[in-house]
Amino acid sequence: MKSKTNYKILSLLTALIVLIGCKKENPPNFHFEYFGLAEGRYVVYDVVEMQHDSALQIHDTLRYQMKTFWGNAYVDNEGREAREYLIYKRDSVNQPWVLSDVWYGLFDGIRGELVEENQRKVKLVFAPTLSKGWDANAYNLDDELECYYREIHQDTTINNYQFDSTLVVEQQTYYNLIDSVRMYETYAKHIGLVYKHHVDNHYQFGSTEVILGNELYMSFVTSGWE
Question: In sequence order, what are the beta bridge partners of 181?
């Protein structure tokens, strides 16, 4: 009788261990939605673009609007599932959109990648943490561009629009007496890129005049579905 009781207890303990061992843990949240890759999603930006070249007496400023749109899905030449990323531009809100470029984006494992003008760039790496870093140009021939997250899951305001959760990706910061380089991007959950700051200016020693360089500022205006 005692052996049967012990057997029952042992059986119950074994079943409990099996149940605990088979219980699935909650899957980790990688926060892929920061990349914004979803069919039909569009984002509109106000853009300011500046070009400097003192030798050619060029100091031009362009102001226009840009619209990005995630289009059709397809398989790229490496066998990866990708999606079209269409770029439209217009000089003012009263003009029609004109297609400017067709890029494409995809998730490759934990990487959010964008292929711009045939240059494959790693824009985000998931899950975002303050200790995570990567080379945005690891898969193209451009110079190394080390990126890291300066802020994660923070609220922010752009053009009077409040975002509940954003990431800030630091790309490059470099200052001295002849160089001023500052590059970073901000991404919002379920939308994608909402702000881009790209400044790469160079000065003559002892002067505050930019002799060669470029600046690009993209600010979120609105987003939606089409």
Answer: 174, 200
Q: State pLDDT tens for residues 140-184.
A: 999 999 999 999 999 999 999 999 999 999 999 988 888 889 999
Question: Residue 201 and residue 209: Cα distance in Å, rounded?
Answer: 10
Gap between the Cα atoms of 204 and 208, Å rounded = 8
Q: Give the C-alpha distances (Å, rounded to integers) separating 178 from 48, 143, 189, 208, 210.
A: 23, 20, 37, 9, 9
Q: What are phi and psi of 209, to 5 degrees?
A: -85, 130
Q: Please give the sequence-ordered ranges of beta strands (E in DSSP) within 6-132, or none if there are none.
A: 41-53, 58-75, 81-90, 98-108, 111-116, 119-125
What's the mean pLDDT in 79-95? 96
Look up the pTM and report it. Answer: 0.86
CA–CA separation, 183 and 215 (whole Å) = 10
Mean pLDDT of the chain: 89
What is the four-CA torsion angle of 110, 169, 81, 40, rounded to 10 degrees? Answer: 130
Domain positions in the chain are 2-225
* Digit-coded pLDDT (tens) for 43-68: 999 999 999 988 788 889 999 999 99
Q: Contact at 8 Å (CB) between 192 and 22?
A: no
